[in-house]
Amino acid sequence: MQLSVIILNYNVCYFLEQCVLSVQEALFAIEGEIIVVDNNSDDDSCLMMKSRFPDVQLIENKENSGFPRGNNIGVAAAKGKYICILNPDTVVAEDTFVKILAFAEGKKDLGIIGCKLIDGTGNFLPESKRGIPTPWVAFTKIFGLYKIFPNQKLFNQYYAQHLSENETGKVAILVGAFMVMERELYLQTGGFDEDCFMYADDIDLSYSVLLRQRNNFYFHETSVIHYKGESTVKDERYMKRFQEAMEFFYQKHFRKSLFFSVFIKVGIFLFSFVKMFQGKPKLNPLPESYVLLSSNEILAGRLSSVLKNKVTFLDFKKEKMVNSCLVSGGKRIEIILDNQYVSFKKCIEVFETFKNKSITFKILPKKSNFIIGSNSKNERGEMIKIE
Known about the structure:
- The two termini are 40 Å apart.
- This protein is 36% helix and 22% strand.
- It has two domains: 3-229, Spore Coat Polysaccharide Biosynthesis Protein SpsA, Chain A; 289-385.
- The protein is α/β, with parallel strands linked by helices.
- β2 (32-38), α2 (45-52) and β3 (57-60) form a beta-alpha-beta unit.
């Protein structure tokens, strides 16, 4: 077997359904398997999996065992030469795994492969590629120096800015939302460290692979949607979690850093102080109009009833007409993509093409009764039922 895709789920039933659908499409030409590990969800995730995907292996944990242990359980059941660690709030293109595996087979001393991750608005997620977070590199990240000096090596290492988002190459650290590697290598490293704090598990695994003289790669030739991207709201709670993660990493692989401990405590104080003067985050305004890309014009009427707003139908096959109609001119438009006719790869292309144009996106997964998406990388996303 070529590939085992491990999806660890906790209470994201609808995102999981869409994710598994996209993975099934991407495994069509590959000898592969999907293993869903559920960390004791109290929504309908397991019921949905059993009714909608009865042939997919489902492992039901009796407790929420955390990200590292949950994935280790999934890998232990895997049979593929390669494994893919995949978040349930992702969407892969139909050719994602074909491209990734072809790239993998051509590399010697291969470690982990990551890919280009975008959020629900089509924007690139910089955590797709990162450097080793030494105390200095962590400092440049927390205080935003990488934004001020993006071309200076001294300041731009956290997000591996020596590579552009559209350039494939070696990087040190990859994100746990999408990781492809040989199963044997994963087992040799011990997999995710079950003592890891939040934010440290993927850093630790990536670094452990480097210690085995393997090369990690960022691969830009396929894009994957990751709805719940890294939050840009850096409050005191975030800082404390980041501190725990980095201190765990330093204690395991390096000496504990007094420099890091001091500056992170100063950072927590400053962020806490600023937080007192911040108002509530602004709510995203509702779309002013909706556009359905489909070949089913009747569906536009059903959606109009659900959304309490007119939904304009556009035949996605008429690409030139679609492109001209989606020039928003500052007007807030939401595009609804009907996956019955629009492939996941095409959905991703639409996200990337119309990003930053006052346009938001929802996908109606194939043979589903809901539309789903996210208008901000700081939010978990939104699901709307279609009765």
